[in-house]
Structures are given as C-alpha cells and as structure tokens.
Amino acid sequence: MIGQLLRNIILRNWGLKLFSLLLAVLLWLVLVPEEKIFSERRLAIPLDLYSIPADMELIDKDVSAVEVTIRAPNRLMDQISPANVFAKLNLQNASVIQQEYPLNPSIISAPFGARVFNLTPNKVRIRFERSKELELEVQPTIVGQLRSGLRLEGVESIPARIPVRGPESKVRDKDKVFTIPIDISGLSQTTEVRADLILPHPETRVPTQQTSVRIRLVIVEDKKPASAPRGRDK
Predict the structure, then answer these.
(1) Which residue, among 123, 140, 230, 233, has the nearest Cα to 191 in the 3D structure?
(2) Which residues are CB-neighbours of 139 under 8 A, at least 6 positions away?
(3) Are both 137 and 215 inside the same structural domain?
(4) 215 with 151, same domain?
(5) 98-142 pLDDT per residue, tens
(6) What is the reported pLDDT for 24?
(7) How many structural domains is the chain composed of?
(8) pTM for this predicted structure
(9) Residue ending a domain, choose from 121, 152, 182
(10) 91 near 128, Cβ under 8 Å?
(11) For 4, how many CA atoms within 13 A lie in the half-sphere containing its CB?
C-alpha cells in the first residue's frame, strides 16, 4: 500500500517534475557566483620543444619556462599542478631564418575541464643552425712515462676516425676528438685499453652513440746500440 503510494507520488506528472529539477539546476548555475564554483591557479612550468627538424640544431632559446593561469572547477584544483600541466611547442615547421615563435594557450595541456586564462610571455626567441656531420681524427692523450729500458713505439686508435655531428659552426675539419688521459706508467708490454672520448665542443655529439675507442699501445725494449771497443793505447 505504501509502495503504491510512493510510486504514484514519484511518477505522477514526472515530466513536469523533471523540468522543474533541470530549471532549478540552471538557476543555481546562473545565480551562484562563478568564484564559488571555479578557482584560478598560477603556475610556472617548463617550456618543452618537440618535433625539431632532423637537419637543424638548437643553439639558443631565451625562455625556459612560462607562467600560466588556469581556471577550473574547485573539484579539479587538486589536479592543477606542474605534474600534469604542460607547455609543449611544436617546431616541425621551424627554420634557421625564423627566430621568434608565438606562445598561445594552445600549447598548454591541462586536465579536462580546466581552461587557460592567461599565458606569459607570448613569444620565445629560438636560434637554429643547420646540422653538419664530419669524420674527425681520434687523438689519444698519453700521460706518464715508461720505466727505464722501455719505449713507446706506437699508438693506434681503433677506429682512427669517428663521425661527429652538431651545428655547422661547431663541426670543423681541423677539429680532433681526444681521449681521456691514458697513463702508461705501469705498463711493461704492448697493451690495448679502452678510453672514453672528449668531443671538440659541448654542442657536438657522436650520432652512433659511441662513447669510447680502443687504444693500442705498442711497447718495446729500448735497445741502445753497443758502444764500439776502444783501441789499445800504443
């Protein structure tokens, strides 16, 4: 009996009741001040660059981070942090001629429901150079001295040359790739060691990801010619 009564109360004029509920929600959204359901948060986040053309090298940029104001419902504010708000600038159409690139809200990635309200700065200066690759000679760096009676006959790098890639102003024919110092003080015979590489400029790199070479040190006995016997005095 009670169940039938409840069903009658709920289902009677259900269309009108649903309309009344929707109208009440709409009035609440309109009349309640926005600041009571939305908040703003200002963040400083790193500016990431991606899709740089393979034949170009990044030389310099004058902006490493941007400041962004995010507006979002209060229930989302715990998610508005540098951990899940990102600034990513697509540079697939970059060129060595263009040096200024606009920054706008479209580069910001934020949780669904959040909106970018402000972004500063509104541009970034980026300088590119064309990439250049050359094979450069490897120059072993030898330190220390062999003990008496031994001589360093030869030093060979395997390989003798390696490819080096970087901005065209930093990759030159006259440059060499050095190894870290190789101490020969304790050696007594021909030896091969592995030595890490030191590139000519910080902006350069080895495209093959090679970080070391084999160095062959040829050590021989230092045989001095015997002195001629002195003639007998007459």
Answers:
(1) 140
(2) 157, 176, 177, 178, 179
(3) yes
(4) yes
(5) 999 999 999 999 998 899 989 999 999 999 999 999 999 999 999
(6) 62
(7) 2
(8) 0.67
(9) 121
(10) no
(11) 1
- Choosing from 121, 149, 166, the residue where a domain stops is 121
Average pLDDT, the chain: 86
Q: What is the 3-state secondary structure (H, E, C) of the chain?
A: CHHHHHHHHHHCCHHHHHHHHHHHHHHHHHHCCHHHCEEEEEEEEEEEEECCCCCEEEEEECCCEEEEEEEEEHHHHHHCCCCCCEEEEECCCCCCCCCEEECCHHHEECCCCCEEEEEECCEEEEEEEEEEEEEEEEEEEEECCCCCCEEEEEEEEECCEEEEEEECCCCCCCCEEEEEEEECCCCCCCEEEEEEEECCCCCCECCCCCCEEEEEEEEEECCCCCCCCCCCCC
The contacts of residue 117 (CB under 8 Å, 6+ apart) are 40, 69, 70, 71
25: which residues sit within 8 A by CB, 6+ positions away? Answer: none
pLDDT exceeds 60 at position 5: no
